[in-house]
Amino acid sequence: MSTTGQSTERIDFTLMYVTHDAFRRDLSRLRRAAAEGRTGSAGVQAGWANFKLQLHVHHTSEDEALWPRVEAASAGRADAAEILAAMAAEHARLDPLLEAVDAALRRPSADPAELTGGVTDLETALGGHMKHEEEAALPLIQEVLTPKDWAAFGRVIQRKQGFSGGAAYIPWAIDGAGADQRTAFFNALPAPVKVLNRLVFSPRYNKRQPWT
To answer: First vs last Cα of the chain: how many Å apart?
Structure first.
């Protein structure tokens, strides 16, 4: 952790931005599936299950291994305390919205309008949270943490995912991403990951036909 409260090196937030965009794409896909009455399909159910897994890993890792580091490194800063309190509150507000959508997706007789409304509420709340994180929390992290701190946070995510979770995360994160974003994503990862994704991870992911 930075001992000065100010890092002289720049943290690369590529994986965070790519992950956020993947969440946005998934909720857009779910909203379309709900509007078209396709939420009972195996592909949509598989896409939703993976979305829940990725969001759980992402947010619990932040709560356990990122925000406490930021809090310790920014002690005494009122603006930092306000940002961190907002992050915690926004995470908490997402839980009942996720549960409502999940419950509706498990009910074959769910009202399509109710489901679409629930997805829209979740999309709005999560989208607002990620925008706030990108505009307020990431600049704070850049100020008070070091690339070494950020790498430690990344290792917590990797431990939570395990190999099978990582195998699901890699192709999911770039599913629908543009060429430039895919290039930046793989540049931020060890070189063998791109080969593993091409040979193993993506074929396994695509076989489940998420969101179709």
So the answer is: 44
